[in-house]
Amino acid sequence: MSTDTEGDGPTTRIQREKHEIILEAALDVFANHGFRGATIDQIAEAAGMSKPNLLYYFRSKEDIHQTLIARLLDNWLAPLRHMSADGDPLEEILDYVRRKIDMARDFPRESRLFANEILQGAPRIMDMLAGPLNELVREKTTIISQWMAEGKLAKADPYHLIFSIWATTQHYADFDVQVRVVLPPEHSGEERFEEAKAFLESMFTRTLTP
Amino acid sequence: MSTDTEGDGPTTRIQREKHEIILEAALDVFANHGFRGATIDQIAEAAGMSKPNLLYYFRSKEDIHQTLIARLLDNWLAPLRHMSADGDPLEEILDYVRRKIDMARDFPRESRLFANEILQGAPRIMDMLAGPLNELVREKTTIISQWMAEGKLAKADPYHLIFSIWATTQHYADFDVQVRVVLPPEHSGEERFEEAKAFLESMFTRTLTP
DNA sequence: CTAACATTTTTCCAATCGGTCAAAAATTCT
DNA sequence: AGAATTTTTGACCGATTGGAAAAATGTTAG
Questions:
Q1: Share of residues in chain B with pLDDT > 90 (%)
Q2: ipTM of the complex
Q3: What nucleotides of chain D have any atom within 7 angstroms of a protein Cβ?
Q4: Statement: residue B46 has pLDDT above 90
Q5: Do A196 and B168 touch (CB under 8 A)?
Q6: pLDDT in tens, B104-159
Q7: Which H or E run contains A127?
Q8: pLDDT mean across residues, chain A
Q9: Which nucleotide in the DNA or RNA is closest to residue A58, CA to C1'?
């Protein structure tokens, strides 16, 4: 029978492998061309198989994309979830910044996939934004506000603080091409992520130190 | 349809008007769907004309897009160009931040057009990035470094400072959907730009005050 | 009015798109 | 081994795409 039914039914070794290969290839293509810009042929070629063969494993282009997005969202919120009310306030936030920079370095395609989705109006993830993300942010901004009220952090709008963390960190993945072209040659190696980390640590420390 | 007014130029008047209408419509479509995701039919419909009629004014979809990009780049670099070595260092930078936020509010489609282009690897504006933009940034980072060396600003990497300004300000245009969904209802009106401005002024002031 | 020109519409086309289907090939099961 | 099942392929389809051609419709100058 076909394997593209939803449930985690009996999947063979080949099926699991091919699914992985396809998703890996699709991540590459979707991240660089967006949903509309990507073609099944492109993904199939990147995955080393024919288009009908790919469609044997996934019902449709949407199906692949949705699977990719669903996987992404888990890891995407992890760093923010990790922020704990029990830790040292500044250190918790700096940790969050560092983790996000690491993600921009280690998973740039995932970041661009997400960025593409938001840019196009987030049609496929609006529920997640309005639901889990909204709630998570509300929860964490509450913690941050608490810290500020207790004098452990300088007062600032916690929502815009989070936006600025998202923006600055994801920028190094989403606008990587621009960053690399603009940076002078002696800084355009992989060390730009460590430089960014240092800069952002300093910026947010100054911003949040009471 | 057509016509009104007599013309000063034999053929230029109507053409200029239609060109404007088309570019305005195309900006809307390109910003929301990307280059590949946009169709000539969509643009034509938004411009209130038929596809062949649109193609009478522009040779191709690329032609429209390139015209749009070329126009954008002028205004895009204007705020950074405006930064002067003669002004008060901190105030020059805060001015830049404010102008960029204003642009995110007043020209979000242009920002998303640009973001789309960079996300896709900047194939059509690589020359501009590697040329004029690179040089402009080099020029301004030199000024900033000078200010820091003179003790007028706290020391920080000027390139990453500029990146953080780009990222935080453009975020409010490019990720507008997310920003609106995440912000609590009482903050999701148009005042979010003023809040952002206040937050970013504070952040960059703290970051750059010696 | 009419000729010259500018604009618009109608019709069409080749390429590409996402996706189907039946049959071949490979694999697994007994 | 052979049967049953899974995987792969090739041939094909309808819809959409960017775009061309040319006729039809204004518009304007003489």
A1: 89
A2: 0.92
A3: 5-11, 16-22, 26-29
A4: yes
A5: no
A6: 999 999 999 999 999 999 999 999 999 999 999 999 999 999 999 999 999 999 99
A7: helix A126-128
A8: 93
A9: C19
Alpha carbons B87 and B64: distance in angstroms, whole number: 39
Q: Which of residues 17-76 of A touch B (CB under 8 A)?
A: 32-37
- What integer pLDDT is reported at residue A11 of this predicted model? 67
Residue B168's closest CA among A182, A204, A208, A140? A204
For residues B185 and B171, what is the distance between their CA atoms, to the nearest angstrom?
Answer: 19
Give the distance from residue A12's alpha carbon to the nearest chain B alpha carbon, in angstroms. Answer: 36
Query: pLDDT tens digits, residue range A123-182?
Result: 999 999 999 999 999 999 999 999 999 999 999 999 999 999 999 999 999 999 999 999
Which of A92, A81, A85, A96 has its CA nearest to residue A143? Answer: A85
Q: Is B107 helix (H, G, I), strand (E, B) or coil?
A: coil
pTM, full prediction: 0.93
CA distance A136 to chain B (A): 9
- Contact call for residues A6 and A58 (beta carbons, < 8 A): no
CA distance B182 to A107: 23
Q: Which top CATH class is B13-59?
A: mainly alpha
Q: Which pLDDT does position B7 carry in this prediction? A: 29
The pLDDT tens digits of the residues spanning A75-109 come to 999 999 999 999 999 999 999 999 999 999 999 99
User: Is the four-CA dihedral B76, B80, B84, B88 of positive or negative sign?
Assistant: positive
Looking at the domain B69-208, which fold is it?
Tetracycline Repressor; domain 2 (1.10.357)
| Residue B11, pLDDT score | 55
Q: What are the C-alpha distances in Å from A127 to residues A51, A61, A79, B174, B176? A: 31, 20, 20, 19, 16
The CATH 1.10.357.10 portion of chain B extends over 69-208
- Round to whole Å and give the CA distance between B150 and B183: 40
Q: What is the spatial distance between Cα A118 and Cα B101, in angstroms, rounded to a whole number?
A: 19
Closest CA to B137 of A1, A187, A101, A48: A187
Where b means 16+ CB within 10 Å and e means fewer, A72-110 reads: bbeebeebbeebeeeeebbebbbbbbebbbebbbebbbb
d(CA A49, CA A127): 33
Please, where in chain A does CATH 1.10.10.60 lie?
A: 13-59
- CB < 8 Å from A in window 135-194 of B: 137-138, 154, 156-157, 159-164, 166-168, 170-172, 174-175, 177-179, 181-184, 187
Q: Which nucleotide is nearest to B36 (CA to C1')?
A: D17
